[in-house]
Design brief:
heterodimer, A: Rossmann fold, Rossmann fold, 4 domains, 7-stranded mixed beta sheet, 6-stranded parallel beta sheet, 23 strands, B: 6-stranded mixed beta sheet, 23% strand
Chain lengths: 582, 189
C-alpha cells in the first residue's frame, strides 16, 4: 500500500472521509461533543459537497431528509442528546424510507465526558426501527459508513452509525480510497411513500415491519458481522470499542463481532452461542443485546459482572472474567481539577455580577453551565438545550411573578438560536415576566467555536447576513431589549436590578466575544501593587485561575494567563490592581 | 514487539495535543501501528487532561490503563501524582515541576500537596525537569512542553534526527527552529 494513502485519523475525521468517499452530496449538523469534528472535517471537501451548521438537530435531520428525497446521498451528525431533538423526523423517516442513501451519525458519550446524560442511541433506534451500525476503530468508521449507504439504499431506510467518545476522539491508521461517483436518483412524486398522513402511514408501518424481518435474516450474512472462532470455552458477543478490549485481554477467545447492532442477526447469534461453553455479552451502556439474546432462551453473562454506567476497559475484563489480581497501586488522593471558565471569559463577569446580587439563574447548555460551581455558584438548573427560559417561565407560572424577582435565565447565543428562541416566544405569548440574559459570545464556545445563524458566517466559510438577536427578540414582542458589554459590571448590575423590578419580559444581551475567539495579542495585563493590596481577597471572588494568593496574603496575577479583561480590577476597592502594558 | 504505552497528562491548554501529535508522527514514521486517544470538549477548559499513545506491531485498544504505562509524561506536578498509578512497575515518570493550582485550591477548599516530586520518587522512577525556566531562557514559555518531550525522548526508541524530522512535519514552519531548540534543550538535560 502506498504510504500516502495511509494516514492517522481521528474517528470523526474517518467518518467524514467515509461519507466523502461514499459520494455524499449534502451534510448537516449542529455541533456537540463528541460529534463536532465530523462537520469540521467534512468541510474540507466543500468543493465536492455541500455542508452546513443547522440551528439544531431537528432541522439538520430534515435537511438531510430533503436531500435524500431529492435523490442524493446525505449525512446528518449529532451527539446522543441531539438525537432526542431529531427524534420527531427520525421516527417518521423510518416509515417513509429514503431515495438517496441517508445516514445519521449519533455520538454517544459513555462516562459522560461532556454531556448531561448517558443515554444509549441504540435504544432510540430500536424504538424507531432504524438499523444501527457500530464500528470499532477509525478504519472501520470509514468503511462502515460506506456500507451504511449501500444498506440504506438497498433496504430503503435511514441508517444510524453509532460512535462513542472513545472512538470519535481516538486516532488510528486509515487507508484512503477514492470518492464514488453516485448518480442522483430521478425524482418521482410518490405521496403514498412521502406524505405521512394516517392512511399512508398505516401501510408504511407494514413496510417497516417487513423491512425489519428481512434485515434480521439478511444481516446474518453481512460482512460487518464477523465470527472469529478460536478457543470455544469462552465466547464474546461484542461491538464497537469494547471489541478492542476483548482483543487486548483475550486474543484467543471466540468472538462474534457485531457491526450491525440493531436489529440483531438472530440466527448468527444462536449459532455462535451454541458453539461456545460460556457466553459473555460485552456492550457499553444499556443491555440492548443482552436482553434480546436472553429473551431467546440463550444463557449469557453480561451486566451482572460488567457495569451499566461509564466506559468499559481491558482491566474490567482482566478482573471480571479472568479474575486476575491486577496489582494496581491506589490512585493518590489529590484535589480535583474540574474544568473552569478561561481567564478573560465574559461569562465570569456576568456571573460575578449575579453572584453579588445573590440572584439564581436557570441555566442552559454551554461553557456557562460552569457558573453552577464555586466560587460563583449562580446557576441552579441545567437540563437540556434551550431549557433555561422555559424552566424559569414554569417557575413563575407555579409560584407567581414575585417568586422569580431574584431569578434570571442565562443562555448562550448558539443555544438561543438552537431552541431557546421557542421558549422566549412562549414566555412572551403566555404573559411571563422573566428576565433573560443572552450571554452572547458570538460563537458556539464549548464545542470549539462553530458559527451559527447569528454570527454571519457559515460552515463553508461564506459571509452571510447575521440574524440580529435584539431585533429577533423585539419581533417576538419583547419590549425591553438591551445590549451591554459584559465587562461593564456597574452598568450590568444596574440593568439587572432595573429589569428584575419590571413586570414584563426583558432580554439583556451581554454582547462580548469569547476570549479564545479570533485571538489578538494581549496589549496589557493586570498586576497587583503589593503595597496597595489590603489582602481583602475581593479580586479572587470571580474565581479567575490567573489570580492566586501568596503566603503573605497579597494576591498575585499570573501574567502568562492574564489577558487584561479587568474583572479583578473592577472588584478592587483600593485601586491596587493596575493595567500594565506588555 | 510488545505494545508500548505512553501517557501525556496535564492541564487543559498546556499543549498535550501537539505533543501527542509529534509522538504519533515519530511512531508512524518508524512503521508501527499507532493508536491515540484524546480528550475534547468540556474537559479541555482548564481541567485535568490525558492523552494516550500506544504503538507496536498491531494495537487493539486505544487507551492506556492503570498499571500499564511505560512512560508517563506529566506537564504539571499535581497531574503527575493523579496519574502515577497508571505506571508499570518499571515505568518512568517525567514530570515538569510547574505548579498550577486547581480551582478547589484557589478558593481554599483544598490544599495543594507539598513535596509531590519527593514523594513520587519514593515509589516510582522519576525524572523531574523545570521546563518552564528552560523555556523562558529560550524566550518563549509556550515551548516548555517540547522541552519535556525532549527529556522523555531519551526513554524511547528513536534517535534525535528522527524527532527533528517529525517536528519539521508537525509544527508550523515559523516555529520549527524554536521547537527544535526546545527539544534539544530537553534532550541534553
Amino acid at each position: 500500500m502506498d504510504d500516502k494513502n495511509r494516514v492517522m485519523m481521528l474517528g470523526n475525521e474517518a467518518i467524514a472521509r467515509g461519507a466523502y468517499e461514499a459520494g455524499v452530496k449534502v451534510s448537516a449538523a449542529y455541533p456537540g461533543t463528541p460529534s463536532t469534528e465530523i462537520s469540521e472535517n467534512i468541510v474540507k471537501y466543500k468543493d465536492e459537497l455541500y455542508c452546513e451548521w443547522s440551528p439544531n438537530e431537528k432541522v439538520a435531520t430534515e435537511v438531510a431528509i430533503g436531500a435524500s428525497m431529492a435523490g442524493v446521498r446525505s449525512l446528518v451528525s449529532m451527539k446522543h442528546v441531539g438525537v432526542n431533538v431529531a427524534a420527531d423526523p427520525l421516527y417518521t423517516v423510518s416509515y417513509t424510507g429514503i431515495s438517496g442513501g441517508m445516514v445519521l451519525v449519533a455520538a454517544d458519550d459513555p462516562g459522560m465526558y461532556s454531556s448531561q446524560n448517558e443515554q444509549d442511541t441504540r435504544m432510540v433506534a430500536r424504538a424507531a426501527q432504524v438499523p444501527v451500525i457500530e464500528p470499532s476503530d477509525s478504519q472501520e468508521a470509514k468503511d462502515f459508513i460506506k456500507f451504511a449507504y449501500d444498506l440504506s439504499e438497498k433496504y430503503d431506510t435511514p441508517v444510524i452509525l453509532r460512535t462513542t467518545t472513545r472512538l470519535s476522539h481516538s486516532q488510528g491508521l486509515v487507508t484512503l480510497g477514492d470518492r464514488l461517483n453516485i448518480e442522483d436518483k430521478p425524482y418521482e412524486r410518490n405521496i403514498a411513500k412521502y406524505v405521512m398522513m394516517p392512511g399512508n402511514a398505516k401501510l408504511r408501518h407494514l413496510v417497516v415491519e417487513e423491512r425489519e424481518k428481512r434485515l434480521i435474516e439478511d444481516s446474518c450474512d453481512f460482512p460487518i458481522n464477523r465470527v472469529e472462532m478460536n478457543d470455544t470455552s469462552i465466547g464474546f458477543i461484542t461491538s464497537g470499542i469494547p471489541y478492542t478490549y476483548v482483543k487486548e485481554v483475550l486474543p484467543n477467545a471466540s468472538v462474534l463481532k457485531l457491526g450491525l447492532v440493531n436489529p440483531l442477526p438472530r440466527k448468527l447469534i444462536e449459532d455462535f452461542a451454541s458453539k461456545v461453553d460460556t457466553l459473555y455479552i460485552f456492550e457499553e451502556l444499556d443491555p440492548l443485546i443482552e436482553t434480546q439474546v436472553r429473551s431467546w432462551g440463550i444463557k449469557a453473562i453480561g451486566k451482572e459482572i460488567f457495569t451499566i454506567q461509564g466506559e468499559y476497559s481491558a482491566n474490567m475484563l482482566r478482573k471480571a472474567v479472568l479474575h486476575e489480581d491486577i496489582k494496581i497501586k491506589e490512585a493518590a488522593a489529590v484535589p480535583g481539577r474540574p474544568p473552569i471558565l478561561c481567564p478573560g471569559c465574559p461569562h465570569r463577569s456576568a456571573f460575578t455580577v449575579l453572584n453579588k446580587l445573590k440572584i439564581h439563574a436557570a441555566g442552559d447548555i454551554g461553557c456557562y453551565t460552569l457558573g453552577a460551581v464555586p466560587p460563583l455558584g449562580v446557576v441552579d438548573t441545567t437540563i437540556c438545550m434551550g431549557s433555561s427560559i422555559s424552566t424559569l417561565h414554569g417557575m413563575e407560572k407555579a409560584k407567581g411573578k414575585d417568586y422569580i424577582k431574584n431569578w434570571v435565565a442565562v443562555i448562550g447565543d448558539s443555544t438561543f438560536m438552537h431552541t431557546g428562541v421557542n421558549s422566549l416566544i412562549n414566555m412572551v405569548y403566555n404573559q411571563g415576566t422573566g428576565t433573560v440574559m443572552i450571554l452572547d459570545n458570538s460563537t458556539t464556545g464549548m464545542t470549539g467555536h462553530q458559527d451559527h445563524a447569528a454570527t454571519g458566517k457559515t460552515l463553508q466559510g461564506e459571509e452571510v447576513p447575521a440574524v440580529s438577536i435584539p431585533k429577533l427578540c423585539e419581533a417576538i414582542g419583547v419590549r425591553n431589549v438591551y445590549e451591554i458589554n459584559v465587562f461593564d459590571t456597574e452598568g450590568l448590575e444596574k440593568l439587572i436590578k432595573q429589569e428584575l423590578a419590571r413586570d414584563e419580559v426583558s432580554v439583556i444581551i451581554t454582547k462580548t466575544p469569547c476570549v479564545l475567539l479570533n485571538r489578538t495579542p494581549v496589549t496589557h495585563t493586570c498586576q497587583v501593587d503589593a503595597d496597595a493590596c489590603k489582602k481583602c481577597g475581593m479580586c479572587m471572588k470571580p474565581g479567575c485561575p490567573a489570580v492566586t494568593k501568596l503566603d503573605s496574603g497579597v494576591t498575585r496575577i499570573d501574567t502568562t494567563m492574564c489577558n487584561g479583561c479587568g474583572l479583578c480590577k473592577s472588584q478592587c476597592k483600593f485601586g491596587a490592581i493596575k493595567d500594565v502594558p506588555c | 514487539m510488545k505494545t508500548r504505552n505512553i501517557m501525556i497528562v496535564g492541564v487543559g491548554g498546556q499543549g498535550t495535543l501537539l505533543t501527542s501529535r509529534i509522538l504519533g508522527g515519530i511512531m508512524l514514521g518508524a512503521g508501527f501501528d499507532v493508536k491515540m486517544s484524546e480528550v475534547h470538549g468540556m474537559a479541555q477548559r482548564g481541567g485535568s487532561v490525558v492523552t494516550y499513545v500506544r504503538y507496536g506491531e498491531s494495537v487493539a485498544e486505544p487507551i492506556v490503563e492503570e498499571g500499564q504505562a511505560d512512560v508517563l509524561i506529566a506537564f504539571e506536578q499535581l497531574e503527575a501524582k493523579r496519574y502515577a498509578h497508571f505506571l508499570k512497575k518499571d515505568g518512568v515518570l517525567i514530570v515538569n515541576t510547574q505548579r498550577i493550582d486547581p480551582m478547589p485550591v484557589v478558593i481554599g477548599q483544598a490544599e495543594y500537596p507539598e513535596g509531590i516530586v519527593e514523594s513520587l520518587k519514593k515509589e516510582y522512577r522519576v525524572i523531574d525537569v523545570d521546563a518552564m525556566s528552560e523555556a523562558l531562557k529560550l524566550g518563549n514559555p509556550r515551548v516548555f512542553n517540547v522541552i519535556v518531550l525532549g527529556v522523555a525522548a531519551k526513554h524511547m526508541d528513536f534517535d534525535k534526527e528522527q524527532w527533528f524530522d517529525v517536528i519539521e512535519k508537525t509544527v508550523k514552519p515559523k516555529f520549527v527552529d524554536l521547537n527544535k531548540r526546545a527539544f534539544e534543550t530537553g534532550y541534553n538535560l
